[in-house]
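Priority: low. Protein: Replication factor Mcm10 C-terminal domain-containing protein. Input follows.
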Amino acid sequence: MESMENTQAQNVDQLTAKERAKIKRAAEILKNAPAKRHKPNDSKAQKENGSKSDDGETNFGGSFSDEQIRTLLEKKSNHDKEAKRAELDQQNIYFDRCQIEEQIETNATSLMELKNCKVVTCSICAYTSRHQSVYCKTSGHEVKRHFADKRFFKCKKCQQRTFCYDRMPTKACISCGAKEFCRVAMKDERKVLTERERLKLKEEEKNFSSLKA
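Result:
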């Protein structure tokens, strides 16, 4: 008997502070849990047994068996695993979305035109667009509905981007008025700025802020 008590004492001493806190929390949960309803026929048997647990320890006064404590700790461990699994699923969804966005951006930087776009052309207003303008509709102009390729361009003078459904833009640049354009992709490649370029950009922003103030 003495050896068993010594062994139990050693096991208690070996518990870490974290495990003791878990056991204490488990004891509080069991202590505050609502009492179970027993059948009238079982009350006599419980009185005779003295409300003892399987290993002989009573449940009165907040005394719990090792099996009950271990069960509570296992439940908490299972909940932690489920929470971590849910967090991992969310991370996978986020990274999958980032990968898709990166793939779209990569394709856009190499795409020079969009083929077979539905467009309308008005010979009176001299334009080709995806939709007929309000003025064109109210004026009753007859438009031609057809398919055309959407091409992307950049002004050689000011680098202003534009697009058209013809082989080359027929109108001047809306930014500087120049009429020379070059073919470009749907989207510019993301440029990694050097340290010198970052400092120059910050200096320009600072000068602009001082002028604005």
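The chain has six helices and five strands. Confidence is low (pLDDT under 50) at residues 4-13, 49-61.
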